[in-house]
Design a protein that fits this description.
The chain is an alpha+beta fold. 53% of the residues lie in helices and 17% in strands. The chain has a domain of 195 residues: Heat Shock Protein 90 (2-Layer Sandwich), CATH 3.30.565.10. Helix 4 packs antiparallel against helix 5, helix 11 crosses helix 13 and helix 15 packs antiparallel against helix 16. Its main location: membrane.
Length: 641
């Protein structure tokens, strides 16, 4: 249970659970009354006002537009990816078929006979063989839409057998390209503005033997670009096929193609690179689907690479082309949103004056009432005659009545607290008093007057402190001085068998307000159960540690009789809260600390470095510690029971 600060009937804003529960019940009832009263007439005004807003329609419209846009974007991405994959698969299949046919033609019987035996063949047989090969080359050409022409060049024969004619021409650039393809194993090579596939006999690139024949398959770039344009069915869309080395591209826009034809001074590689905007190739650098922006225009793209042919297919389409129809609907939605915003603004001003301002005043009054500021929350005034006028009157009556009830509860709890603290501080074990009187008797028998004087002086100080009842709390320095008197008495009693280390309090801790008699019972417990029957020299150490928010006073002894089971049992008892049990000893102190200083205060037990028990007394260092109020009850058992 928490109690308010001493001498303040309102507890400085920190109230007891009884008062808080009682007050919360009244507040909840008042809030329920508030909700029930504004449910009818004001509710009708609110419904009428909200019907003027178009928020649901706007929300649904925006969601539909966004959903449609997302669906279209997804469909475009899926369509682009599907088309790119389909075309590239078809192109790869066709190129594979052409490559296989090319390889078969190089080992054709007529071709092999012409290569191997042309020197011993009569002219008629050579001519017949070349015509047969020419016919087969035409069949090869006609078998694929992507093949424009085929050449079989036999250098030793001095013949260039083409699908349409037989010539003696051996273009050096074509021979160089074929040699490079043989060495690098490149599939497609640009030559003179065209693309070729090449083969040789023998075709082993590692062989040192000079090839005896070259086969050149000229691809129809026009037909490939036509198929690319047909494949890119989106308006303003572009499909581009290019090699990974950047030597050639297919699928350039018509304007760029005309510029390329006019630029006759440009070499083959540079002319081929004009087939697609370089920025587009740089923007879409990874396979997959995505978006990029060029010149302020956003594009969707899909890209896929053929590992077999070492070529990449890129298709991109302007975002505006596919999402253009949605722009008009977005503009209509923005117009509708602006109109709705104006209506809502006017409506909000009206609601603020009619409802929000009175409710805000009532809410602020409830918050002041919650903090205990009764005077500020009383006498709410309202000039109109509606539900708020009735609510304000009821609130004024409730706050006045609540103030009186809380005042009565506080006074009752303060009286109970003072009575309990006085009863607890009076429960001090008289065991050591018997020993002191017997000790005084022995000292007088030995006529040790000086020791008797010191003992009686400290004993008088001791009795004067414990019998003083002018206040329930004292400064911590007074508690420490009382412990010094008690320790001095024990030093006289034990003599050389006792060593006491008593550390001074930090300067900032001396004025902390604490309950009376919280240190002496702990020290007394150490003497009675740890040091009184010690075989060797007993040690008692009292140390202090100060942090920003907590003062720790530690009392340690080197007692020999403390077992781990007893230590664990006493620590467990400190955590038990039982109001029906009488409290004495360390449990008495623990209870009073928490009752006065709050849940963070109290005792913690552990094994001391000296071997006996270490008792940590925790005292909050914020303020004087007495404003928080304690909580709970503790059991009465300790090592004396």
């Amino acid at each position: 249970m928490k109690y308010p600060g001493k001498g303040n009937p309102r507890g400085n804003g920190k109230h007891s659970p009884i008062a808080i529960d009682f007050r919360e019940g009244i507040l909840l009832k008042a809030l329920h009354t508030l909700r029930s009263r504004i449910r009818f007439r004001i509710y009708e005004k609110l419904v009428t006002a909200f019907l003027l807003t178009l928020i649901p329609i706007l929300t649904i419209s925006f969601l539909v537009t966004l959903s449609s846009e997302a669906t279209i974007r997804e469909d475009i991405s899926v369509s682009l990816r599907s088309k790119v994959h389909s075309y590239l698969s078809t192109f790869e299949t066709e190129m594979t078929r052409i490559i296989r046919m090319k390889e078969r033609y190089m080992v054709d019987e007529d071709v092999q006979n012409l290569i191997m035996f042309h020197e011993i063949m009569p002219f008629d047989e050579q001519r017949t063989a070349m015509l047969s090969i020419q016919e087969k080359l035409r069949q090869f050409r006609d078998s694929s839409l992507f093949v424009q022409g085929i050449k079989l060049m036999v250098p030793e024969l001095g013949r260039d057998i083409q699908d349409e004619r037989i010539d003696h021409n051996f273009p050096q650039d074509e021979i160089d390209a074929l040699r490079e393809m043989r060495t690098t194993r490149q599939i497609i090579m640009p030559v003179n503005g065209t693309l070729i596939l090449g083969d040789s006999y023998p075709n082993n690139a590692m062989s040192m033997q000079t090839p005896e024949a070259w086969l050149e398959v000229i691809l129809s770039t026009a037909d490939i670009e036509t198929s690319l344009r047909q494949f890119s069915e989106f308006r303003d869309g572009q499909a581009v096929l290019f090699d990974q080395a950047g030597k050639w591209t297919l699928g350039m826009p018509p304007k760029q193609k005309q510029n390329q034809k006019q630029n006759t001074n440009t070499d083959t590689t540079a002319a081929s690179s004009m087939g697609v905007p370089a920025d587009a190739l740089q923007a879409a650098t990874k396979d997959g689907i995505g978006r990029f922006e060029l010149g302020g225009t956003k594009y969707y793209f899909a890209r896929e690479t053929s590992e077999l042919l070492h070529v990449t297919l890129l298709m991109y389409v302007p975002e505006k082309t596919v999402l253009g129809p949605l722009d008009w609907y977005k503009q209509l939605l923005w117009i509708l949103a602006a109109t709705s915003l104006l209506v809502i603004l006017v409506f909000s001003l009206w609601i603020y004056r009619l409802i929000h301002r009175p409710i805000q005043r009532l809410t602020m009054a409830f918050r002041q009432l919650e903090k205990g500021e009764f005077q500020q929350s009383l006498a709410l005034q309202y000039r109109y005659k509606d539900q708020f006028s009735d609510l304000y009157q009821q609130f004024n009556y409730m706050s006045s009545r609540l103030k009186q009830l809380i005042q009565d509860v506080y006074e009752q709890e303060l009286s109970l607290k003072r009575a309990e603290l006085k009863q607890l501080q009076s429960q001090i074990n008289p065991h050591f008093l018997y020993n002191i009187f017997f000790l005084l008797n022995r000292i007088l028998q030995f006529d040790d007057v000086d020791t008797a004087k010191a003992l009686t002086r400290n004993l008088g100080t001791y009795f004067r402190y414990i019998t003083r009842s002018s206040s329930d709390e004292v400064e911590l320095q007074q508690e420490m001085d009382h412990v010094r008197s008690y320790a001095a008495i024990q030093s006289i009693r034990f003599g050389s068998k006792l060593q006491i280390e008593l550390e001074e309090l930090p300067a900032e801790a001396k004025t902390l307000r604490v309950p009376r008699l919280i240190l002496q019972p702990i020290v007394e417990n150490a003497f009675e159960y740890g040091l009184e029957d010690h075989q060797d020299q007993g040690q008692l150490r009292i140390s202090c540690t100060m942090s920003a928010d907590m003062l720790i006073i530690q009392v340690e002894d080197n007692g020999e009789s403390l077992s781990d089971e007893v230590l664990k049992d006493i620590s467990a008892r400190l955590k038990i809260k039982d109001a029906a049990v009488e409290t004495t000893g360390m449990l008495n102190v623990h209870h009073r600390l928490q009752l006065s200083l709050g849940a963070s205060a109290g005792l913690l037990l552990s094994r001391s470095e000296l071997g006996g028990m270490a008792v940590r007394i925790q005292i909050p260092a914020t303020g004087n510690g007495l404003e928080q109020g304690g909580s709970g009850n503790v059991p009465s058992d300790d090592r004396r029971q």
